[in-house]
Amino acid sequence: MKKKLYDLAHCRAGDKGNTSILSLIAYRDKDYALLCEKVTVQAVKRHLAHIIKGKVVRHEVSNVGALQFVCEQSLGGGVTTSLAMDAHGKSLSYALLEIEIEI
Question: What's the predicted TM-score (pTM) here?
Answer without folding.
Answer: 0.77
